[in-house]
């Protein structure tokens, strides 16, 4: 088995970054204001990036910057200044998809580690070795690489070339994110981080001789749905990936919430600990990934499955719990919290501390910022206090089971 793999978590803004680090990631990946494959998140400007690096490093975590778009001529001219400033901010690596960007990174940030993105489409050890020769420290394999091939790649590449794979999150229906549907249908370019996810939409067929007559594209007993991919989930299979020689286990989701980031990071970090000891991951940890918004789960391309097992016939999201709030601090038998979503007195809380285990708790009283007794919390970001005999650390997550 390889050295202990890292858990690599996503962060689209400062709150998500803190959630990833506080709840146990070994490394976090973020985007700058350009050159990243996610435009919806707030991302990090120069000053914000430097502060993010300091926060991660203070906790012993690394920070990687996504530079994985394929730039135009005009964009490429801006990259030298961008990467030089990011390097000065202290980032640990750049995640790159373009050979020209790779060359500029080596020129303008010569000591910076280079991770070749899943957007490169790395499927074999020949490609991995050539990228290593060009200066890559790590290769992020295409999602389409099966587990058996990962082991073959590991055996045929240098020991110091790292392998990163995705273990959790959304999957593209197209090969490693090279889909053109969004650009063609909406003008929003997936390679500029603006994908409208048309693969999740409902579609009908119209026959040429019957204009205006639409036919549903629906699933039958054979599973004839064609576009909508399930989410990847390998939380109970991490031992297989470690045995194959994976260096880094990556969670997808830079456009997801801090609640998602914290919950999934915490679960995978704990699951990896069990996997590396050869022990079965407890059901309580596996269940954590069902407490965030998700599509039905599958194991992607890692095992020999029928393709239909990776797709499902609608675009619904599911979750078993709602995010109710966060703990600010506990003092003198009172828990001070910031509300995030609606809840009422008597709702049963589940409180998840950073790097801890969930604890059940049902408030008997709660008070608003004016000290008035209330029974309903219905103002997002409101400050509340709740009598509590147990103390929870700041940033603990409060959630309630969906009714």
Please provide a brief summary of the model.
With 403 residues, the protein is an alpha/beta fold. Helices cover 26% and strands 22% of the residues. It folds into 2 domains: 6-174 and 228-310, Aldolase class I (TIM Barrel); 321-401, Translation factors (Elongation Factor Tu (Ef-tu), domain 3, Beta Barrel), CATH 2.40.30.10.
Tally of DSSP β-strands? 20
Instruction: Strand order, main sheet: write it out.
Output: 1-2-3-4-5-6-7-11
Mean pLDDT, all residues: 90
Number of domains: 2
Approximate helicity band: 25-40%
Distance between the termini: 43 Å
Number of helices: 10
Secondary structure: elements and pairs:
Blueprint: E1 6-10, H1 14-22, E2 27-31, H2 46-58, E3 62-67, H3 73-89, E4 93-96, H4 99-108, E5 113-116, H5 125-134, E6 138-140, H6 147-155, E7 162-169, H7 181-186, E8 204-206, E9 214-216, E10 231-233, H8 238-244, E11 248-251, H9 258-276, H10 283-286, E12 297-298, E13 321-331, E14 334-339, E15 343-344, E16 349-352, E17 359-361, E18 376-377, E19 383-387, E20 397-401
Parallel strand pairs: 1-2, 1-11, 2-3, 3-4, 4-5, 5-6, 6-7, 7-11, 10-12
Antiparallel strand pairs: 7-10, 8-9, 13-14, 13-20, 14-19, 15-18, 16-17, 16-20
Helix pairs in contact: 1-2, 1-9, 2-3, 3-4, 6-8
């Amino acid at each position: 088995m390889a050295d202990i793999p890292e858990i690599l978590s996503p962060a689209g803004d400062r709150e998500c970054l803190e959630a990833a680090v506080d709840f146990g990631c070994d490394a976090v990946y973020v985007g700058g204001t350009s050159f990243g494959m996610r435009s919806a998140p707030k991302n990090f400007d120069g000053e914000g990036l430097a502060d993010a690096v300091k926060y991660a490093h203070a906790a012993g975590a690394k920070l990687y910057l996504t530079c994985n778009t394929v730039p135009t001529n005009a964009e490429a001219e801006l990259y030298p200044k961008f990467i030089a400033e990011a390097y000065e901010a202290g980032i640990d690596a750049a995640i790159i998809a373009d050979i020209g960007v790779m060359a500029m990174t080596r020129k303008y940030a010569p000591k910076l580690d280079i991770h070749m993105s899943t957007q490169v489409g790395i499927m074999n050890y020949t490609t991995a070795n050539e990228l290593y020769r060009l200066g890559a420290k790590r290769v992020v394999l295409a999602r389409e690489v099966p587990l058996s091939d990962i082991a073959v790649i590991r055996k045929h590449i240098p020991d110091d070339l790292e392998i990163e794979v995705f273990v959790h999150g959304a999957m593209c229906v197209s090969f490693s994110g090279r889909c053109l549907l969004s650009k063609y249908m909406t003008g929003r370019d997936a390679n500029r981080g603006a994908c409208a996810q048309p693969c999740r939409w409902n579609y009908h067929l119209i026959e040429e001789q019957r204009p205006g007559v639409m036919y549903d594209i629906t699933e039958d007993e054979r599973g004839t749905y064609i576009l909508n991919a399930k989410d990847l989930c390998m939380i109970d299979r991490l031992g297989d990936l470690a045995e194959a020689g994976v260096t880094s286990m990556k969670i997808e989701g830079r456009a997801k919430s801090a609640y998602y980031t914290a919950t999934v990071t915490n679960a995978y970090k704990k699951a990896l600990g069990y996997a590396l000891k050869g022990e079965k991951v407890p059901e309580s940890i596996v269940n954590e990934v069902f407490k965030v918004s998700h599509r039905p789960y599958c194991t992607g391309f890692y095992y020999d499955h029928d393709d239909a097992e990776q797709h499902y016939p609608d675009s619904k999201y599911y979750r078993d719990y709602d995010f109710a709030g966060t703990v600010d601090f506990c003092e003198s038998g009172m828990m001070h919290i910031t509300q995030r979503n609606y809840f009422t007195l008597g709702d049963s809380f589940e409180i998840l501390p950073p790097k801890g285990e969930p604890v059940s708790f049902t408030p008997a009283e709660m008070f608003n910022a004016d000290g008035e007794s209330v029974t309903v919390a219905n103002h997002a970001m409101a400050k509340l206090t709740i009598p509590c005999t147990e103390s929870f650390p700041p940033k603990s997550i409060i959630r309630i089971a969906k009714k």
